[in-house]
Specification:
The protein has 271 residues and is an alpha/beta fold. It contains nine helices and twelve strands. The strands form three sheets. Strands 2-1-3-4-5 form a five-stranded parallel beta sheet, sandwiched between helices.
Amino acid sequence: MEQDRIAVVIEDDADIRSLLRDVLEQAGFSVFTASTGLEGVELVREHDPIVATLDVSMPGMDGFETARRIRAFSNAYLVMLSARTDEIDTLQGLEAGADDYVTKPFRPRELRARIDAMLRRPRFSASTPMGMTTSADTRQFAMDAAALGSILPAAFAGQHDSEWLEHKGLRMQPSDRVVVVDGKELGVELTRSEFEILRELLESGRRVLSKQDLALMLRGEQYLGSDFLGESEARAIEVHMANLRRKLRESATIPRWVETVRGVGYRLTAP
Protein backbone atom coordinates (compact mmCIF):
# COMPACT_ATOMS: atom_id res chain seq x y z
CA MET A 1 0.00 0.00 0.00
CA GLU A 2 1.37 3.39 -0.93
CA GLN A 3 2.17 5.54 2.07
CA ASP A 4 0.14 8.70 2.61
CA ARG A 5 1.67 11.87 1.22
CA ILE A 6 2.93 13.45 4.43
CA ALA A 7 5.47 16.27 4.60
CA VAL A 8 7.22 18.05 7.44
CA VAL A 9 8.43 21.65 7.10
CA ILE A 10 11.20 22.76 9.50
CA GLU A 11 11.67 26.51 9.13
CA ASP A 12 12.06 29.29 11.69
CA ASP A 13 10.80 32.10 9.40
CA ALA A 14 7.00 32.19 9.71
CA ASP A 15 6.42 33.62 6.21
CA ILE A 16 8.59 31.02 4.47
CA ARG A 17 7.08 28.29 6.64
CA SER A 18 3.61 29.35 5.48
CA LEU A 19 4.72 29.47 1.83
CA LEU A 20 6.21 25.97 2.04
CA ARG A 21 3.04 24.66 3.63
CA ASP A 22 0.96 26.14 0.78
CA VAL A 23 3.27 24.71 -1.92
CA LEU A 24 3.20 21.22 -0.42
CA GLU A 25 -0.53 21.24 0.32
CA GLN A 26 -1.19 22.23 -3.30
CA ALA A 27 0.90 19.21 -4.29
CA GLY A 28 -1.40 16.96 -2.27
CA PHE A 29 0.58 16.61 0.97
CA SER A 30 -0.64 16.66 4.54
CA VAL A 31 1.82 19.10 6.08
CA PHE A 32 3.16 19.43 9.63
CA THR A 33 5.36 22.40 10.50
CA ALA A 34 8.04 23.13 13.07
CA SER A 35 10.01 26.27 13.87
CA THR A 36 13.03 24.54 15.46
CA GLY A 37 15.23 21.61 14.61
CA LEU A 38 14.36 19.66 17.76
CA GLU A 39 10.63 20.07 17.16
CA GLY A 40 11.12 19.04 13.53
CA VAL A 41 12.98 15.87 14.47
CA GLU A 42 10.11 14.84 16.74
CA LEU A 43 7.53 15.57 14.02
CA VAL A 44 9.44 13.36 11.58
CA ARG A 45 9.65 10.61 14.19
CA GLU A 46 5.92 10.87 14.92
CA HIS A 47 4.52 11.16 11.39
CA ASP A 48 7.10 9.32 9.20
CA PRO A 49 6.83 11.75 6.25
CA ILE A 50 7.81 11.03 2.67
CA VAL A 51 9.59 14.39 2.42
CA ALA A 52 10.88 17.02 4.83
CA THR A 53 12.26 20.49 4.14
CA LEU A 54 14.88 21.97 6.46
CA ASP A 55 16.16 25.50 6.85
CA VAL A 56 19.92 25.62 7.41
CA SER A 57 20.18 28.73 9.60
CA MET A 58 17.92 28.00 12.55
CA PRO A 59 18.59 29.13 16.12
CA GLY A 60 19.87 26.39 18.38
CA MET A 61 20.24 23.21 16.35
CA ASP A 62 20.97 24.13 12.73
CA GLY A 63 19.74 22.35 9.62
CA PHE A 64 22.89 20.25 9.22
CA GLU A 65 22.58 18.70 12.67
CA THR A 66 18.82 18.35 12.22
CA ALA A 67 19.38 16.42 8.98
CA ARG A 68 21.92 14.12 10.66
CA ARG A 69 19.51 13.33 13.49
CA ILE A 70 16.63 12.67 11.10
CA ARG A 71 18.78 10.51 8.88
CA ALA A 72 19.69 8.33 11.87
CA PHE A 73 16.16 6.89 11.95
CA SER A 74 14.28 8.07 8.85
CA ASN A 75 14.63 7.66 5.10
CA ALA A 76 12.42 10.63 4.25
CA TYR A 77 13.54 12.71 1.30
CA LEU A 78 15.34 15.72 2.80
CA VAL A 79 15.38 19.06 0.97
CA MET A 80 17.68 21.63 2.55
CA LEU A 81 16.85 25.31 2.02
CA SER A 82 19.40 28.04 2.59
CA ALA A 83 20.47 31.51 1.55
CA ARG A 84 24.06 30.25 1.74
CA THR A 85 25.55 29.61 -1.70
CA ASP A 86 29.13 28.67 -0.83
CA GLU A 87 30.33 25.27 -1.99
CA ILE A 88 31.20 24.24 1.57
CA ASP A 89 27.57 24.71 2.62
CA THR A 90 26.30 22.51 -0.21
CA LEU A 91 28.93 19.93 0.74
CA GLN A 92 27.89 19.97 4.40
CA GLY A 93 24.24 19.60 3.48
CA LEU A 94 24.81 16.60 1.23
CA GLU A 95 27.14 14.96 3.72
CA ALA A 96 24.52 15.41 6.45
CA GLY A 97 22.15 13.30 4.37
CA ALA A 98 20.18 15.84 2.33
CA ASP A 99 18.84 14.66 -1.02
CA ASP A 100 18.73 18.17 -2.48
CA TYR A 101 20.07 21.62 -1.60
CA VAL A 102 17.98 24.60 -2.74
CA THR A 103 19.12 28.18 -2.34
CA LYS A 104 16.85 31.01 -1.22
CA PRO A 105 15.04 32.81 -2.64
CA PHE A 106 13.51 29.83 -4.42
CA ARG A 107 10.70 29.56 -6.94
CA PRO A 108 7.77 27.52 -5.60
CA ARG A 109 7.31 25.86 -9.00
CA GLU A 110 10.96 24.79 -9.07
CA LEU A 111 10.81 23.39 -5.54
CA ARG A 112 7.68 21.41 -6.36
CA ALA A 113 9.32 20.06 -9.53
CA ARG A 114 12.37 18.94 -7.56
CA ILE A 115 10.20 17.15 -5.02
CA ASP A 116 8.13 15.50 -7.77
CA ALA A 117 11.38 14.27 -9.35
CA MET A 118 12.56 12.78 -6.05
CA LEU A 119 9.27 10.99 -5.52
CA ARG A 120 9.76 9.17 -8.83
CA ARG A 121 12.82 7.52 -7.29
CA PRO A 122 12.50 4.50 -4.94
CA ARG A 123 11.86 5.21 -1.28
CA PHE A 124 12.90 3.02 1.64
CA SER A 125 10.96 2.22 4.78
CA ALA A 126 11.95 4.36 7.73
CA SER A 127 13.11 1.30 9.69
CA THR A 128 15.67 0.19 7.13
CA PRO A 129 18.87 2.21 6.61
CA MET A 130 19.74 3.07 3.02
CA GLY A 131 21.99 0.62 1.24
CA MET A 132 21.32 -2.12 3.82
CA THR A 133 18.66 -4.75 4.51
CA THR A 134 17.32 -6.13 7.77
CA SER A 135 15.30 -9.10 6.51
CA ALA A 136 16.98 -12.49 6.95
CA ASP A 137 15.16 -13.73 3.87
CA THR A 138 16.55 -10.87 1.78
CA ARG A 139 20.06 -11.51 3.03
CA GLN A 140 19.74 -15.21 2.25
CA PHE A 141 18.47 -14.38 -1.23
CA ALA A 142 21.50 -12.15 -1.75
CA MET A 143 23.83 -14.94 -0.67
CA ASP A 144 22.09 -17.47 -2.91
CA ALA A 145 22.19 -15.08 -5.86
CA ALA A 146 25.90 -14.54 -5.32
CA ALA A 147 26.52 -18.28 -5.21
CA LEU A 148 24.59 -18.79 -8.44
CA GLY A 149 26.30 -15.90 -10.17
CA SER A 150 23.13 -13.93 -10.83
CA ILE A 151 25.03 -10.96 -12.19
CA LEU A 152 22.96 -9.29 -14.87
CA PRO A 153 22.32 -5.62 -15.65
CA ALA A 154 18.92 -4.59 -14.30
CA ALA A 155 17.79 -1.54 -16.22
CA PHE A 156 17.53 -2.78 -19.79
CA ALA A 157 14.32 -3.83 -21.54
CA GLY A 158 12.99 -7.23 -20.47
CA GLN A 159 15.08 -7.36 -17.31
CA HIS A 160 14.09 -6.97 -13.67
CA ASP A 161 15.05 -4.76 -10.78
CA SER A 162 15.80 -7.79 -8.57
CA GLU A 163 18.81 -8.81 -10.66
CA TRP A 164 22.38 -7.96 -9.78
CA LEU A 165 24.80 -5.47 -11.31
CA GLU A 166 28.53 -6.13 -10.97
CA HIS A 167 31.88 -4.64 -11.85
CA LYS A 168 35.20 -6.01 -10.59
CA GLY A 169 33.95 -7.23 -7.22
CA LEU A 170 31.49 -4.37 -6.67
CA ARG A 171 27.95 -5.77 -6.71
CA MET A 172 24.57 -4.08 -6.38
CA GLN A 173 20.99 -5.31 -6.18
CA PRO A 174 18.80 -2.26 -6.93
CA SER A 175 15.50 -3.63 -5.63
CA ASP A 176 16.81 -4.33 -2.12
CA ARG A 177 19.34 -1.48 -2.17
CA VAL A 178 22.18 -3.87 -1.35
CA VAL A 179 25.80 -3.00 -2.17
CA VAL A 180 28.46 -5.70 -1.77
CA VAL A 181 32.23 -5.20 -2.09
CA ASP A 182 34.41 -8.31 -2.47
CA GLY A 183 31.73 -10.51 -0.95
CA LYS A 184 30.97 -8.27 2.06
CA GLU A 185 28.01 -5.93 2.37
CA LEU A 186 29.06 -2.28 2.37
CA GLY A 187 29.40 -1.22 5.99
CA VAL A 188 28.49 2.43 5.44
CA GLU A 189 25.26 4.00 4.31
CA LEU A 190 24.89 5.46 0.82
CA THR A 191 22.54 8.37 0.33
CA ARG A 192 19.86 7.99 -2.33
CA SER A 193 21.78 10.20 -4.72
CA GLU A 194 25.00 8.24 -4.25
CA PHE A 195 23.15 4.97 -4.75
CA GLU A 196 21.41 6.17 -7.91
CA ILE A 197 24.66 7.53 -9.37
CA LEU A 198 26.42 4.22 -8.72
CA ARG A 199 23.51 2.32 -10.22
CA GLU A 200 23.51 4.51 -13.32
CA LEU A 201 27.24 3.97 -13.80
CA LEU A 202 26.95 0.21 -13.38
CA GLU A 203 24.12 0.08 -15.90
CA SER A 204 25.99 2.24 -18.40
CA GLY A 205 29.17 0.17 -18.49
CA ARG A 206 31.98 1.93 -20.34
CA ARG A 207 29.69 4.63 -21.74
CA VAL A 208 30.77 8.02 -20.38
CA LEU A 209 28.14 9.82 -18.28
CA SER A 210 28.52 13.59 -18.08
CA LYS A 211 27.68 15.61 -14.98
CA GLN A 212 24.65 16.82 -16.89
CA ASP A 213 23.54 13.22 -17.53
CA LEU A 214 23.79 12.42 -13.83
CA ALA A 215 22.09 15.65 -12.72
CA LEU A 216 19.18 15.08 -15.09
CA MET A 217 18.88 11.49 -13.85
CA LEU A 218 18.68 12.65 -10.23
CA ARG A 219 16.18 15.43 -10.81
CA GLY A 220 14.02 13.68 -13.45
CA GLU A 221 14.52 13.75 -17.21
CA GLN A 222 11.76 16.27 -17.84
CA TYR A 223 12.77 18.58 -14.99
CA LEU A 224 11.19 21.97 -15.81
CA GLY A 225 11.56 21.07 -19.50
CA SER A 226 15.20 22.19 -19.39
CA ASP A 227 18.55 20.46 -19.68
CA PHE A 228 20.57 23.42 -18.41
CA LEU A 229 23.11 22.43 -15.76
CA GLY A 230 23.89 25.15 -13.25
CA GLU A 231 27.22 25.53 -11.49
CA SER A 232 25.73 24.45 -8.16
CA GLU A 233 24.32 21.26 -9.70
CA ALA A 234 27.65 20.42 -11.34
CA ARG A 235 29.35 20.93 -7.99
CA ALA A 236 26.74 18.74 -6.28
CA ILE A 237 27.54 15.87 -8.68
CA GLU A 238 31.24 16.28 -7.88
CA VAL A 239 30.43 16.16 -4.16
CA HIS A 240 28.28 13.04 -4.57
CA MET A 241 31.08 11.35 -6.53
CA ALA A 242 33.69 12.29 -3.92
CA ASN A 243 31.50 10.97 -1.12
CA LEU A 244 30.74 7.79 -3.04
CA ARG A 245 34.43 7.12 -3.65
CA ARG A 246 35.22 7.79 0.01
CA LYS A 247 32.60 5.29 1.15
CA LEU A 248 33.85 2.71 -1.35
CA ARG A 249 37.43 3.45 -0.24
CA GLU A 250 38.40 4.09 -3.83
CA SER A 251 41.22 6.38 -4.95
CA ALA A 252 40.29 9.02 -7.52
CA THR A 253 43.80 8.91 -8.96
CA ILE A 254 44.03 5.10 -9.17
CA PRO A 255 40.36 4.09 -9.39
CA ARG A 256 39.25 0.48 -9.20
CA TRP A 257 35.65 0.99 -10.30
CA VAL A 258 34.85 4.52 -11.53
CA GLU A 259 37.24 6.68 -13.51
CA THR A 260 37.01 10.38 -14.31
CA VAL A 261 37.08 11.30 -17.98
CA ARG A 262 38.58 14.75 -17.67
CA GLY A 263 36.37 17.49 -19.04
CA VAL A 264 33.59 15.02 -19.87
CA GLY A 265 32.32 12.98 -16.92
CA TYR A 266 32.60 9.51 -15.43
CA ARG A 267 32.52 5.86 -16.53
CA LEU A 268 33.42 2.42 -15.23
CA THR A 269 37.05 1.39 -15.39
CA ALA A 270 38.13 -1.17 -17.98
CA PRO A 271 37.22 -4.77 -17.02
